[in-house]
Design brief:
The chain is α/β, with parallel strands linked by helices. The protein has 23 helices and 11 strands. About 45% of the residues lie in helices and about 15% in strands. The strands form 2 sheets. It has a 6-stranded antiparallel β-sheet with strand order 6-11-7-8-9-10. Strands 2-3-4-1-5 form a 5-stranded parallel β-sheet. Strand 9 and strand 10 form a beta hairpin. The protein is flat and about 95 Å long.
């Protein structure tokens, strides 16, 4: 088979559901979180919709694997049934003996109600999952709604999960089904993969199939074409990539290319819409018209560019050229040596596409990303500051209250300061928040820097003149390995929380998850329930944390970041961008630590 030709162990793009190839994009994780949230809430309806091939079956399997052990589930895969047949199928799935002669709706409902009460007495949950629910008739949906009337004084006895295509949500929006629609406690529409997720999905399946590290079968440009032709639907991605690799194998190529992809799209997806290959056999008259139109557009754009160049553009381009000359002059006079080549406009446009403009010293801003420019570092006094000054900068991001005298574990104005140690820059990147690094000056006095972001071999700092980019190699000899960060612990949080704990901290955490999942009610009020533990485990797995279901500081930091309780790096950079800093009036011995 073709996969051996590419050094793979098996076909990577089979449309069969294989748990080894499970790929959970952020939207798939969100969908699973909503389903688990609904199951944990107990009773009522949960709705999952999505286009054909977006991965609803994958979500179903993940849900079944993560349901609590005390859950009995009935799965209906063929919804083309009447109400009586559907109830009989549910009883069959749950092992309810209703007798062959008792097929009336009343008899089936009574037997199901008895089973639910017995299950509730045994502290077991019951869930009914209906796939392809968009095919259910109105009278069947109404009968399903009536099943949720089976309840005790405190909770519903049956949880119903409806899974189907987007038209299911439209059907439930009909006035005659408004009672059912109002009982949906969690709903999620699973969308297709975006371009970045499509590339990650293709790489994931190839790596699982045994693709050698560093080898590439689909170039980034070809991934864009795959995404355009399939609209990011995983099943179509599998079909198209499988056929493209087969075509490359048949033509003796080392990787897929545009020709094989177009041929595969024609064979697998047909010629309609985005999947139709280009047809260059245009009539001579049409081709001539297109060329003439292109010439007219070109002349208009050229004239517009010349006109703008004589007015407003001159004001924009001239300072850049002048600044480049100034850098060259400064380099010559300072003994740095070497000529600074003047970048062409093409070089500037190409490099600017990858450069991120910063606020800070002019030298840092001018030289970043320009071909042939000398990397001029800002003065050390611009970013290596007294610890109290940096602490004040960091505190301003979290609270309007006065800055505490010391940064310790004491919670002040709802803000806690934690101190940690690290030996590598990689250990800092996982925090995704502004960090105060304990530094020393070259003269060995105490100092600090406010680290916003690590980008490759450079660090983005906030100094006296704004945001400044400094090489990590410059920071490393001055860093002591200690860093500090601020965060908002939940009220009453004193130790890691786990199942069975109670208190306001548990309630606050449950509310944060409700905000994160866009749910109206939290999973629990004050007790750390099994449902909350399950949600915590899912969150920890999605964020590469130890999935022990225990909420410690590391889990809270990530939860605060994603629910907007703590400020993220992106938000901090935006804040500093909008609020121009006021230069700090340092004392004569400020560089010596004040």
């Amino acid at each position: 088979m073709y996969y051996q030709y590419f050094g793979l162990n098996e076909a990577p793009f089979s449309i069969a559901v294989n748990p080894r190839y499970l790929f959970m994009s952020p939207r798939h994780r969100d969908a699973l979180a909503h389903l688990l949230y609904g199951v944990g809430a107990g009773g009522g309806f949960i709705l999952l919709t999505g286009e054909v091939g977006t991965g609803k079956t994958t979500i179903n399997r993940c849900l079944l694997e993560q349901l609590p052990d005390n859950t009995d589930i009935a799965i209906i895969l063929n919804p083309a049934l009447n109400a009586q047949e559907l109830l009989a199928s549910a009883c069959d799935e749950l092992g309810i003996d209703y007798g062959q002669e008792q097929h009336s709706l009343k008899a089936l409902t009574d037997r199901l109600h008895t089973f639910l009460l017995e299950n509730h007495a045994r502290d077991r949950k019951t869930t009914l999952l209906i796939d392809e629910a968009q095919h259910l008739d109105f009278d069947v949906l109404e009968q399903i709604r009536l099943l949720t009337n089976l309840e005790t004084n405190s909770e519903k006895l049956l949880q119903i999960i409806l899974i189907g295509q987007p038209e299911l949500a439209q059907k439930l929006g009909r006035p005659e089904l408004r009672q059912l629609n109002q009982r949906i406690t969690a709903r999620y529409n699973l969308e297709a993969l975006n371009l970045e997720e499509t590339g990650a999905y293709i790489r994931h399946r190839l790596e699982v199939a045994g693709l050698a590290p560093g080898r590439e079968l689909f170039t980034p440009g070809l991934v864009k074409q795959v995404h355009r032709k399939t609209r990011g639907i995983p099943r179509l991605i599998n079909l198209l990539c499988d056929r493209a690799l087969l075509g490359a194998y048949g033509r003796g190529k080392n990787l897929a290319d545009r020709a094989t992809l177009d041929a595969a799209a024609l064979e697998v997806l047909g010629q309609s819409g985005e999947t139709a290959p280009r047809d260059w056999r245009l009539p001579a008259l049409s081709l001539g018209f297109v060329l003439a139109l292109a010439l007219v557009v070109y002349l208009l754009i050229d004239a517009s560019t010349l006109s703008l160049g004589e007015s407003s553009n001159a004001d924009v381009i001239e300072p850049v050229v002048a600044t480049q000359a100034e850098v060259a002059q400064d380099a010559s006079s300072s003994g740095l040596g070497g000529a600074v080549s003047q970048p062409t406009q093409l070089q500037i446009e190409a490099d600017d596409a990858q450069a991120t403009p910063l606020i800070g010293s002019p030298a840092a801003n001018v030289t970043k990303g320009y071909a042939g420019a000398i990397q001029v570092e800002p003065a050390i006094g611009d970013w290596l500051l007294p610890p109290a000054v940096v602490q004040s900068q960091l505190w301003s991001l979290y609270s309007p209250s006065p800055v505490p005298a010391v940064c310790d574990a004491t919670v002040t104005a709802g803000v806690a300061c934690s101190i940690a140690q690290a030996s590598t820059w990689d250990e800092l990147e996982i925090y995704n928040r502004p960090l105060l690094l304990d530094m020393v000056t070259p003269e060995r006095f105490a100092a600090a820097v406010l680290l916003l972001q690590i980008d490759g071999r450079n660090a983005l700092l906030f100094g006296q003149q704004g945001m400044i980019e400094v090489p990590l190699a410059t920071l490393a000899p001055l860093w002591q390995g200690t860093f500090r960060y601020l965060w908002h612990p939940p009220p009453g949080f004193e130790r890691p929380l786990q199942r069975g704990d109670e208190g306001p901290a548990v309630a606050a955490i449950a509310r944060q998850f409700a905000v994160l999942d866009n749910q109206p009610l939290p999973l629990t009020s004050t007790e750390f329930s099994a449902a909350l533990e399950q949600r915590v485990r899912l969150f920890q797995r999605a964020n590469s944390l130890t999935d022990d279901g225990v909420v410690g500081e590391r889990t809270l930091l990530r939860l605060n970041e994603q629910s907007g309780v703590d400020i993220s790096i992106a938000a901090a950079i935006e804040r500093f961008t909008l609020e121009q800093p006021t230069p700090v009036e340092s004392a004569p011995d400020a560089e010596a630590g004040g």
